[in-house]
Amino acid sequence: MLDEFLQQQIQQKIKDFPVSIHWGTHSIIPSTTSKVAINVRNPRALMTLAHPTLGGLARAYVEEWLDFEGSAQDIMSLGQAYCNIDAGKDAQSSDAWMWWRHTRNRDRKNISYHYDVSNDFYNLWLDEAKVYSCAYYENGTEHIDQAQAKKLDHICRKLMLKPGERFLDIGCGWGALMLKAAEEYGVEAWGITLSQNQYDYVVEQIAKRGLGGRAHVQLMDYRDLPAELPFDKIASVGMFEHVGKRNLREYFDKIYSLLKPDGLVMNHGITFVELNSGGLGSGISDFIEDYVFPGGELTHISTVTEELSAAGLEPLDIENMRIHYGKTLWEWVTRLEANKTEAIRLIGEKNYRIWRIYMAGSAFSFDHNWLALFQVVAGKSKENGSLAYPFNRNHIYQ
């Protein structure tokens, strides 16, 4: 009786949407010319479909209570319309209890959970340099390999890297930025990561490229970096999302202590678009916490600049790359789907579903202005307040 009642609710709610829903041989919503079909595999999915949230639909898909047939773009568009919600403006801030989530041990475990999946898995859909962050589409037509190479150069030029400088990459990933900086810009590059897989890969690449003495990597927490030998330039790409909102001042204080006077830092990270958001609504933030990024926290760009300034760093250049990240993520989704069989062999069906729906949902969020991606360049002035920085931005685009 409950199943029949739920099916009636589903029929009433979704009758005007271009979708078909099937449960075994039974059609809850008959086949149409729709681009999306939903196949129910477990009766628990009926409650989700009758009372949908975006996070709930993602959870039902990951747990294999239902299957979606259709392109990821069409599935996300249907889900948003079906739930009838602007997820970028739904959740309110409730982070008073978050302080305990970012101990060194917990952060290490959280990073390992997300990044120590399988290097071979990441190879299926990342670019050739293994850059797991927003690409830079200068013209919008570049191949992902070209766009990521341009992003690395974009960062290096923003920081005005020069031969002989000491350069630090906080959260260096698989080392693409620090390796390029050492090879092509002549700096002495240092990278840190909490991922064992990433650390092992960078060590291998340093040896393979003959960069011993010019590139170094350490498996360590940014909070443990000594400040005795400060750096000329610092980059943090796709890392501060793991810091925690209550730890942003400590994070920027640490960067300030690691930076030489007249030095530059570039922070590249995801932010909310809604000013006082406590997370993406419609159950999305809960899904990401449970399945994708445990301990991950976002904030608004105004909070980033406030905490950065409070630490003594002067904001110099701010660029919103939201449209670039939407395009990057759709590229990743397409490449992942094209390698579905091998991805499932490497990480299993459930993890494949997590990554597919997470990246598609993220792409949708950037496209719909729920999330943004900012690169913020800041400087540490000398005692007299002076800071060597150009009068124009030509150094970035030459």
UniProtKB/TrEMBL annotation:
InterPro entries: CFA/CMAS (IPR050723), CMAS (IPR003333), SAM-dependent_MTases_sf (IPR029063)
Keyword Membrane: no
Family affiliation: Belongs to the CFA/CMAS family.
Protein name, per record: Cyclopropane-fatty-acyl-phospholipid synthase
Source organism: Methyloradius palustris
GO-annotated molecular function: methyltransferase activity
CDD domains xref list: AdoMet_MTases
Gene3D superfamilies with a match to the protein in the record: Vaccinia Virus protein VP39
Domain of life assignment: Bacteria
Keyword terms of this UniProt record: Lipid metabolism, Methyltransferase, S-adenosyl-L-methionine, Transferase
Pfam families for the chain: CMAS
Tagged with keyword S-adenosyl-L-methionine: yes
GO annotation terms (biological process): lipid biosynthetic process; methylation
